[in-house]
Amino acid sequence: MTPATTSARPPGRPRAGIDATVFAATLSTVHELGYAGATMDRIAAAAGVAKTTIYRRWPSKGALIADCLVDALGPAPLKDTSREENISSAIRWAAAKIGEPGLGAAFAGVFVDAVSDPALREILSTRLQDPYRIALQDALGEPENRVLLFIDVVVGTLLHRMGMTGEPMVDADVTALVEMVLRHFADPA
After folding, report:
1. What does pTM read for this prediction?
2. How many other CB atoms sit within 10 Å of the CB of residue 182?
3. Are residues 38 and 29 in contact, defined by beta-carbon separation less than 8 angstroms?
């Protein structure tokens, strides 16, 4: 009889990649069933994990969606370029991201839930909006109130179009949005 070998792997399911798997399942489920239909049960089933696995990481669907959006969006594409190029690239990037399957619907759905949920608003503010607001403030040299207006105008317009038509904004309209925003933010406040 040979002695039992010890495994370097801890018992239970491997943990690596769970977040990525859950995020992909979340966006896929939102894309297929809509935000309201994307329940934690359905997301867990699509991810192939137990619902308790999800709840250990995220206390609510809103917290899951917020982290999913942060992961899907990644960092803002701001570079050491001109002010106009930073504004244009930020708008075009937001339009492209919101047009990705499930992303716009997840964005809009979590915003609706946040209207009546102060804890979710705090999560969205700190985890989602603040990193982009700070990056834009640094890149554009604008005060917080002007950057918040920029975010409101751009994201609000893009989500409104998605909500009204079910489709992302077409390139010609994104270009028009860029031109409108540039007129207002062409010069520092």
Report:
1. 0.84
2. 14
3. yes
Structure tokens at 67: 């982290």
User: With contact defined as beta carbons under 8 Å apart, do 114 and 124 qualify?
Assistant: yes
Total residue length of the chain: 189
Contacts 24+ apart (CB under 8 A), 82-91: 83/140, 83/141, 83/185, 83/186, 83/188, 84/182, 84/186, 86/139, 86/140, 87/140, 87/150, 87/178, 87/181, 87/182, 87/185, 88/178, 88/182, 90/136, 90/154, 91/154, 91/174, 91/177, 91/178, 91/181
Q: What does the pLDDT look like over 103-149, one tens digit per residue?
A: 999 999 999 999 999 999 999 999 999 999 999 999 999 999 999 99
Calpha distance 138→78 (Å, rounded): 10
